[in-house]
Amino acid sequence: MSVLITTEMLGEHPTLSSMNTDLDLTSAWIRSGDGLVGFGEYKKFIVTGEDRFDQARVWWNNQLSEFKINNNVHGSGTGPLLFASFAFNSSSPSFLVIPEIVLGQKNGKSWITWIGDKNQPSLEKISNSSISGEIIWQDAAKGEEVWRQQVTKAITAIKDGLVEKVVLARDLTATSTKEINARSLLQRLEIEYPSTWLFLVNGLVGATPELLVRLNKSLVTSRVLAGTIRKSGNEDRDLALAASLAKSSKDLEEHEYAVKSVADGLAPFCSSTNVPESPFVLHLANVMHLATDVTGVLNSSARQADIFTLIEQLHPSAAVCGTPTEVAKKYISQLEQMDRGRYSGPVGWIDAQGDGEIAIALRCGLLSEDRKSIRIFAGCGIVADSNPEKEFAESQSKLIPMRTALDTL
User: How many Cβ atoms are within 10 Å of 156's Cβ, its own excluded?
Assistant: First the structure.
């Protein structure tokens, strides 16, 4: 028996983060006011193992085979949607979610997709999200000194020629006297970081500036970030800092590894690729990054290389793992001494046509099941010229988006 999926235009153009139904907000993907938000869970699937991307493809295709799709809007991101959040390591669980209702908005056009034979669900605009309780930050199990020692060990291994780059992460946990409201968190992040990709999938929530892969028909895009400097808050000073970042041999080396890993990953599947000769400086509210947009066109003979193939090929990039990949992963396992979970893993959405946007889950936190605690993360790319003190300061800067959003709930 087929399941009806209906997509229709909305007469009004709601603000995504302010719309509500009688279902819980479970999924979100928003950038500069446009995007997708999902309510309720029609189905959820958990995958683990080296073949997790294949498992995800098979499961999604099986779900699509059961749908009778009535799409009166058309275009990327319309019709039934899969929200996905993959773990950094294949041994940790990855989550696939199909919401019951999805609201979409792009370029002034708004639409709604729902599952089932019922009429279009009613929507209401909420004035304020429920208020979260007092946030209490816990001392990190891995303090500054321990993490700096781990960075020092990675630098030594790099200088000894055992590995070229290693990305090391750390975490921090906060508890709340009430449930932490994911919608409020997204709204705070949207105010401060509108140019990032805001996401929520199965309790993983954040605002990432790094796009792993976008597939729109045959056009492939990836935004690579590596190399970071903290803003001072003074416009003239920040312009000087941006210039120094663009000339920093340490940051340019780190960035080069990340860009090469993405370009090499896409090359077998693309008839052409475009890799700019030098990065640009991406300005965010708290930091600046070296950034490069890599683009390509899928080979007509490689159209079977769908978005799941590209995700598998690109993850983990040197921006979140290191170079060479397998060697760097071993050092991460030895030095980090923690489970990243879905931090630095692929996160985003995929539609019935195979189009989608998948980011890298950075500047994010994982809510506990009772929503009364959250574990946030930050990582830094370590190369030969890295300095442990500066790397720790950089990690502190990368924790600011989530810390500030939580502290102001």
Answer: 11
**Longest CA span, the chain:** 65
If one counts the domains in the chain, the total is 1
With a cut of 90, say whether residue 185 has pLDDT above it.
yes
Q: Which domain holds residue 158?
A: 3-407
Identify the DSSP state of 121. P
Separation of CA 96 from chain center: 14
φ/ψ of residue 213, rounded to 5: -160, 135
DSSP state of 248: -
Stated pTM of the model: 0.94
| Angstrom distance (rounded) from CA 53 to CA 307 | 10
Q: Distance between CA atoms of 242 and 248, rounded to whole angstroms?
A: 10
Render pLDDT for 273-332 as a digit per residue (tens, 0 to 9).
999 999 999 999 889 999 999 999 998 775 568 999 999 999 999 999 999 999 999 999
pLDDT tops 60 at residue 272 = yes
Report the DSSP beta bridge partners of residue 165. Answer: 323
- CA 345 – CA 362 distance, rounded (Å): 8
Distance, CA of 137 to chain centre: 24
CB under 8 Å to 119, separation ≥6 — which residues? none
**DSSP state at residue 162:** S
Q: Who's near 357: CB < 8 A, 6+ residues apart?
A: 29, 197, 211, 213, 214, 348, 349
CATH of the domain at 175: 3.60.120.10
Q: How far apart are CA 210 and CA 292, in angstroms?
A: 10
Q: How far apart are the first and last CA of the chain?
A: 45
What is d(CA 204, CA 400) in angstroms, rounded to the nearest whole number?
A: 17
pLDDT tens string 19-53 = 677 788 999 999 998 999 999 999 999 999 999 99
Contact assessment for residue 225 and residue 167, using Cβ atoms and an 8 Å cutoff: no
